[in-house]
Sequence to fold (817 residues):
Amino acid sequence: VTGPVSLLDAAVGRHLDALCEIGNRFVGTRGEAQAREYVLACLRQCGLERVHTEPVTVRGYAAGDAACELPAWSLTLAADGFQGTAVGEVQAEAVFLGGGQSAAEILAHESRLPSLRGRIAVFQSYWPWEVTAQLAERGVAGVVLISELPDDRIAALPAGWYGDLRGGEVLPYPGVVVGAGSARGLLSALAAGETSVRLRHDASYPRVETANLLGEVPGDERGEHVVVAAHYDTFRVGDGAHDNASGLAGLLAFADALAAGTVARTRRTLQFASFAAEELGLCGAREYCRANAASLSSCAAMVNLDAIAWQVSGRRCLVVSADLEEYATERLRADGWAPELIMDGRTAGSDMAPFVAAGVPSAWCWLHPPQHVYFASEGDTRELVDVKLVSRTAEAACGLAVALANEPRR
Amino acid sequence: VTAITTAALRRHLAAITACGNRFGGSEGEAACRDHLLGAFAAIGLDGVAREDFGYLGYRPGDTHCVPGGGGDEYACVGLQGTVAATVEAEAVFVGAGGEEDFERLGALIKGRVAISAAANPAACARIAVRRGAVALIQLSTAPEGHISHAVATAREHASPRQRAGDWLLAIPGVSVEAAAGKRLLSAIAAGCSRVRVEHGCKYLESSAANVVGMHAGASERVVVVGAHYDTQATGPGAWDNGSGVAALLALAEAIAAEPTRDSIRFVAFGVEEQGMWGSMAFVAAHSEEVTRTTAMVNLDTVGAAMNGSRLLCSSPALRALACETAIANGWRPDRFVDATDMPWFDHGSFELAGVPVACLLQDVPKHPYYHTAGDATRYLDMRLMSSAARASAALVGRLANEDAAAS
Fold:
């Protein structure tokens, strides 16, 4: 990477280690509070201005019991609660939808299946929130999500963006998540005509006060700013080394580089943001866009660092809003990080989405696919993250932010 | 050992993957064989030669998997080791394909197509045939539209001495792409359970070769080091097994520079993927040498860019030495497995012949592109690869020089 930002692997590694040492950072946990303190301390230490927090109130999740049974075969599957679905118990005929990574894929063959109304929908996905609202519209009685992870691991994925008190809702049906290995027994039964499934989900959704973390490196010309962001929370389990200690370590190492003077002062202000509660539905980023709606018109661009790299050198993927695609692609190519895959920023399941919706040109650089083998599970460990890959990806993203901060008004 | 550098590994790997796909019978296989002959000679090994052997080669043909009532096909490739035939029947899902999974379905298997998500397709296939299934569908888990190639015959069937008819599974089979597989299961669960399996392929009496060379020692005894140079049917096979062959060449360079007490036999095996034909042929052709062989060290799939666990697969007689040597060279095993429990590698052919074996395996949770076109160099970690290569080299050095090493 040959752009305007060069990061020290040692700095990235130090932040990565520190965040992983804190451990799980799910909303409302002690680890989340520790991560908040760590990030604020780093931003202050780097001499950023206006280091402050902005409150975010969300609906959290406290897991209770979960069960998934196939009475006819006396089969009991190890199950976790599907966070974001209703608490409750249901027994009904189950329908296997298949799977995919979008609602269109998951529902593609719906017309050939029995009506979903009153039935339990079973499906497999890394990104279940893409389809859970449609399933509610169909009137499903319950949902069984099958993890994509190996070793029969159960991913701690949320069912939807329920965390946002002003927009999100807990889905009206109960749901559970099961491992792909034990789900084979379930699918075998469904294929053999034994379709009655019982599931139970117990949990609570406490109100949780959390906060976005902000700071600035003022530009030479006041007025406009560029937001560079990385969320600091994790899924319910695991150290979140990839998601999102990787992006956050890149962001903090960028602050280090600015403090050390290895990156020149920009024309526009660089606003550093570490958003809260991304994994519950981009809650922190949404709240930021809502609370700062007035100043978003002076936000020239947003650059997102989320799950940027792990141990496998995936494809250089640029997720970008249409208004920034050409510029960002050219810039990244010139900086030695030519995108191999470009995705539509409007559908991004990450903090850039509310910015795109608000009309802010936004970009996110990450190495993807392949998906992390242990996505959203305790397998997302420090050991499976390569610091060099994180550094180079962060350099590309932060270099883009610097270029955007220096660009004449476009 | 320190002569094995990541730069050397990278250089060898680039030359091997540049040959392209190296499935038995392909141009890439021939190109790689020629490259290895040149590389062995350049290293200065003695008696560098190609040793031809016959095998039954799989040649893919027109293959389909279609819903019985019509509709979009399920993307698939042939399941190797199953016969070319077309069958249409009701399908059932046998899950992991273990005996208990079949047991649960009871009478539902006979006369049906068995769909499986088995980790070991050969074991599942054997049970399915015994219980009267008429076709097999193996579900691939590879992402992004890739289809992982699989073989449905167990190794004991893959003997060059057996005739084709004895070796092939008597029912047709296909491997179905992951998303299509989910759609297939969805259709069956919804009652549309008829499916047509059309497996087009040929099994041809073919010829391939091992590439051999020797580092002559002072004693009569021999230590074998090997790696297979063929790949599955698609992709550059960077991990499987460009990595092992690169390690073999780097190891040969390091060892050829110094005299050893025992001779070291270097072998790049042909056609491992279709049933370990090369290693079986080597053992058969060198029966006298095998009696003088004290150990075999295998290099297969090293250095995937996923830590996974380090698995020391060995004969009981070699475990202590291999473990101690590996640890001393920075490769600490997480788990041990008896080689007889993992015979589906080239070392299995030697183990069967009574030679103690060892293989330093990296047991990754799930290489997403295993046996697909996506098995590229970018998904390898040269650091992990050199760590396994160095530990293997140190083990070979001790086996060839120390009295207590092998009995």
Q: What stands out?
A: The two ends of chain B are 24 Å apart (CA to CA). Residues 369 and 375 of chain B are 5 Å apart (CA to CA). Chain B has a mean pLDDT of 93.
